[in-house]
Design brief:
Rossmann fold; alpha/beta; seven-stranded mixed β-sheet; single chain
Length: 252
Amino acid sequence: MPRSWKSIPFFRWSFWRMAFGVRHLREHWQVGDGREERLAAYVETHARHGDGADVIRVIDDYGYNESFLMNVGDEKGLILDAAIERAQPARVLELGTYCGYSAVRMATAAPAAQICSVEFSSANAEIARRVLTHAGVSDRVTVVVGTLGDGGATARQLEERHGFGLGSLDFVFIDHDKAAYLPDLKLILGRGWLHPGALVVADNVKFPGAPEYRAYMKQNEGTLWRTIEHETHAEYQSMFKDLVLVSELIEA
């Protein structure tokens, strides 16, 4: 939640450093100043081993007090928690692992779930695995390096190695390349992984924005999907408004 002046991003050098490094961020999905690697060490030093809730607390502390991060964060994390608790999923797909924060949140909120998290950056994947191991959830969270937009290789891996198949997927959390939100959702639907009643949660729909995804959900409201739009703030600050969409599949 807002923490005095640190919730105002313009007062924080780590926010400006991320803004100035947007080209590097788009190419490598890291800011470029080592903050992601430092986060893993910070978690290992400050969080209780095997305690997912404490790992979440420590990452939020890092995001406010050390370096700005682009994971879902504490405010929007509560929306994700509530959706997970509503779905009670057995199998979860996450698109965009980053440093493992949201995977830890989901594994903590759904202790019976098996989670596959797809991450484009191999460097981020290694950092996330360190965080997941420290949180004590690495036996239930598998990080797969790849992207659903790679011509089918990653999708086939999910099917052949991780049990994805017709109606097997209960929950999807989308928090990666905003331009890929809608194409990747359509690929998931096309392969039949979702079943009626499955939930799809999408972060950052307003900031930085996924307008095509939001328009698709509006166009299919009440026929294919039932969507609730949650008005909130972008991670670790109180200035930029954001939307998190929680969508329930009506029919596969």
